From TrEMBL, chains A, B:
Location of the HTH cro/C1-type domain: 19-73
Alphabetical list of SUPFAM superfamilies matching this protein: lambda repressor-like DNA-binding domains
Pfam family, one: HTH_3
GO CC terms of this entry: cytosol
Gene3D superfamilies reported in the protein's UniProt record: lambda repressor-like DNA-binding domains (1.10.260.40)
Database matches in InterPro entries: Cro/C1-type_HTH, Lambda_DNA-bd_dom_sf, TransReg_Diox_bact_type
Alphabetical keyword list: DNA-binding, Transcription, Transcription regulation
MF terms in GO: DNA binding; DNA-binding transcription factor activity
Name the UniProt record assigns to this protein: Helix-turn-helix transcriptional regulator
Length: 76, 76
């Protein structure tokens, strides 16, 4: 059975969950966080929903902007 | 100072080190491992050297083909 839809990796979902948790810890809306970190709101929203197949470098950059180690975003 | 060279993320280097360690544990050459996993030898070599800015999904796929959890490749 050929899988035609986009396969969302577990890692993508984990990064999304951890980003959302971190944002909530900071008490920020997606918009406020995006502004603070210099990202676009819709981009952060799609990362949170696990829709973005980020590269290792962009995960690391996101973590750096959040002031957390990259591994913090990669494990529950 | 504008950094013109490609920035290699720490995560890329970690994945490279862990892949190489795993390959050595299995006692395989890059060529043999590439063949077994269905990757191109030069691709695996570049991943091992930390030259590839892999996506989360491709790290997960690589881990699955190695029979290890993705996190195993993401932390030392």
């Amino acid at each position: 059975m050929h899988h035609s839809g986009r396969v969302t990796s577990e890692l993508q979902k984990t990064v999304g969950r951890r980003l959302r948790e971190r944002r909530r810890e900071l008490g920020l809306s997606q918009e406020a966080m995006a502004e603070q970190l210099g990202y676009h709101r819709t981009f952060l929203g799609s990362v949170e929903r696990g829709e973005r197949n980020l590269t290792l470098a962009s995960v690391e950059q996101l973590a750096t902007s959040l002031g957390v180690p990259a591994l913090d975003l990669l494990r529950d």
